[in-house]
Amino acid sequence: MASGETVRRRSPFARAVLIPKLEVSLEERALEIETYLKLFGYKPERTLLYIYLPPSGERGFGRKYTPEERERLKRYRERYGGSAFTIIGHTHDPVVLASARVPKNFESATRYSGSIPPPDAHLKLPPDFSPVHLKHEDEEGLKRKFGSYLIAMYVPTLQSMGEEGRITRTVEWKNTLLRKLYRVGKNYKPEQRWRWINELMQYGYQELSKA
Asked: Given the DSSP bridges, would you call strands 85-91 and 130-131 parallel, antiparallel or unpaired?
C-alpha cells in the first residue's frame, strides 16, 4: 500500500469537482481505494484502469467490437471460462477524464471514454469513487447533474493444481467477490469508512493467490 506521504504528494483530490462528506480524510480515502482495487488484483505499478459511460440498452456497455476483437474474446472465454474484464466501481466526477488517455478509435468503442495509465492509477480517481454496488446518498441527483463514469479493469487469473494438471480460474472467485459486495452495498454508503474491506480480504485476489 502506498505511504501516506506518497498519497499526499500525488493525490489529485484537491482539483476534484465533487468532494463528498466523508467519515475519513482524503488521504485515508485514497488508501481505501487502493486497498479495494487490490481485492481484484490491482497492481499500482502496472494496472491500467478503463473509463466507460453507463450502458444505454446495449450489451457490452455499448462497445462495437471488430470481428478480430470478437474472435479474441471468444478464445479468451474458452480458455479461462469467462471474461476477466470487470466493472469495479463508478464516479460522477468528470475530473476523472483529466488524466485519461483518449481512445484511438471511437468507431469501435462508442461508450469507451479512455484509460487511466499506471503507475498509481488509483490516485487519479476522484474521492467520490464508489465500489460496485455501493450508492451515494444522493445517487440519482448526482447522475442527473454530473453524469456517471464506470471504472473497469482486467482482473488477473488464478491458477491451481488439480488432478488434471494446472487449472485456471477467473470467473468463480471474481463472482464470489462481487456477490459479497452486493450484500455490502445494502448496508453501507461510500461516504462511510470502508470497514467492510477487511471482511472481504479472504475473497480477494491477494489471499486466494496464496492458496
From this structure: antiparallel
